[in-house]
């Protein structure tokens, strides 16, 4: 259901606390053990420390097209105004940009309105039975199904770094999930979002997607579809829309990614650098939360329990509410020659793609993977191990674009 390239530069037992995040708003990311009874869940949530938010520099909040993006469009014979007026809808396969340096994503203010967000369909990467059995000698036994639990509202108090990633593909508006992560080179002022590679690039069958935007704490109060029939932008996007001015994903996904994950699934991760459609503060300052990324790539046996967060959009879910699962990971691989991934039991469906997987490391909640692929019966999710290559991608994004 979910699914890379280095650019140039998706529990049983008791409810377990994954740890506190050192950010504003007394945030703590908690995971509900799916499969245990309501009576078998503890209610512990530690306090988080506060961080300072400073006013950012800007030009009065007015969004402008960076000159480098405008120049890149011109190199391909595309006028910026024409692009913003709908030229981006031209998906001529012979002209579909494929190279990392050809990622272009100028802000189209007002494009992602509440009704358009609700129309976006999940970016699904579904593993076939044949693929799932391809490496039975490498993979651990399939985990027991785990039913996803709804996150408590308001989301900004319980899972502030989590949000939705919207984008346009040749098939129309699409949606994934993502997580605000810290920027080691720009502490306290991060504009970085972690998601799946297949949420930014089509893999071996195409190029970069368009109109990529991140909406943290989407539908913050978890309102129903009926309640949101006339929703205002503030209800759907309490922190506004954040447009990606650059995206990085791995060569493994861009070269090997496919509709079922393919050889690229083990490299299915991406980092976005975003800017606000309106405003001047950084994403981390605005949301008041961000997570460190764990690039130690612990084995499934060493990793301990993991929690997966996201906005599942395929039935029986509708993409409006945030859900989570907690489970002890096992090993999963799509081939004996491919890297091992993590796999947990979880009923979340497409739309949860790209959502962060968290664990506790030295008493702190950190991002350790993201939802990549799952089976047609939605009983489990698999995500990549994040090692040296993923860290290099992250560092390049931080150093090259983090200060912008």
Automatic annotation (TrEMBL):
Keywords: Signal. Residues 1-33 form the signal peptide. It comes from the Bacteria. The keyword Signal applies. The keyword Signal applies. Residues 38-47, 122-133 have a biased composition (Basic and acidic residues). InterPro entries: Glutamyl_endopeptidase (IPR050966), Peptidase_S1_PA (IPR009003), Peptidase_S1_PA_chymotrypsin (IPR043504). Residues 34-66, 122-144 are annotated as: Disordered. PANTHER family: PEPTIDASE S1 DOMAIN-CONTAINING PROTEIN, SERINE PROTEASE. This is Secreted protein.
């Amino acid at each position: 259901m979910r699914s890379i390239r280095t650019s140039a530069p998706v529990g049983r037992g008791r409810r377990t606390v994954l740890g506190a995040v050192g950010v504003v708003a007394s945030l703590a990311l908690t995971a509900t053990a799916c499969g245990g009874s309501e009576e078998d869940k503890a209610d512990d949530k530690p306090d988080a420390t506060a961080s300072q938010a400073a006013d950012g520099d800007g030009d009065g909040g007015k969004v402008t097209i960076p000159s480098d993006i405008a120049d890149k469009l011109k190199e391909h014979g595309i006028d910026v105004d024409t692009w913003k007026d709908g030229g981006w809808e031209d998906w001529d396969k012979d002209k579909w940009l494929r190279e990392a340096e050809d990622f272009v994503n100028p802000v189209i203010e007002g494009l992602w309105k509440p009704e358009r967000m609700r129309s976006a369909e999940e970016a699904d990467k579904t593993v076939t039975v044949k693929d799932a059995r391809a490496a039975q000698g490498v993979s651990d036994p399939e985990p027991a199904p785990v039913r996803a639990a709804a996150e408590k509202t308001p989301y900004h108090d319980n899972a502030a770094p989590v949000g939705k990633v919207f984008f346009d593909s040749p098939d129309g508006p699409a949606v994934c999930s993502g997580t605000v992560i810290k920027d080691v080179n720009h502490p306290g002022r991060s504009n970085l979002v972690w998601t799946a590679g297949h949420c930014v690039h089509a893999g071996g069958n195409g190029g970069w997607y368009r109109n990529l935007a991140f909406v943290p704490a989407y539908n913050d109060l978890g309102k129903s579809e009926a309640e949101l029939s006339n929703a205002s932008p503030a209800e759907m996007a309490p922190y506004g829309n954040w447009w990606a001015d650059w995206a990085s994903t791995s060569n493994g996904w861009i070269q090997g990614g496919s509709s079922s994950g393919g050889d690229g699934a083990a490299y299915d991760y991406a980092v976005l650098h975003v800017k606000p459609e309106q405003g001047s503060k950084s994403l981390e300052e605005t949301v008041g939360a961000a997570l460190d990324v764990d690039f130690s790539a612990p084995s499934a046996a060493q990793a301990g329990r993991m929690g997966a967060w996201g906005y599942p959009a395929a039935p029986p879910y509708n993409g409006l509410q945030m859900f989570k699962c907690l489970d002890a990971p096992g090993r999963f691989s799509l081939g004996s020659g491919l890297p091992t991934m993590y796999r947990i039991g979880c009923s979340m469906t497409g739309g949860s793609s790209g959502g962060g997987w968290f664990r506790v490391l030295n008493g702190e909640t950190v991002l350790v993977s993201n939802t990549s692929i799952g089976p047609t019966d939605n009983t489990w999710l698999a995500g990549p191990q994040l090692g040296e290559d993923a860290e290099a991608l992250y560092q390049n994004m931080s150093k090259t674009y983090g200060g912008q």
